[in-house]
Amino acid sequence: MIPGITSKLSESTVASAATIDAKSDVVLVTGTTQIDTIIPHFGGGFGGYLILIPTAGSVILSTAGNILIGITAVINRAVHLNYVKSTGKWYINSGV
Question: Is the dihedral of CA 16, 73, 64, 40 positive or negative?
Answer without folding.
Answer: positive
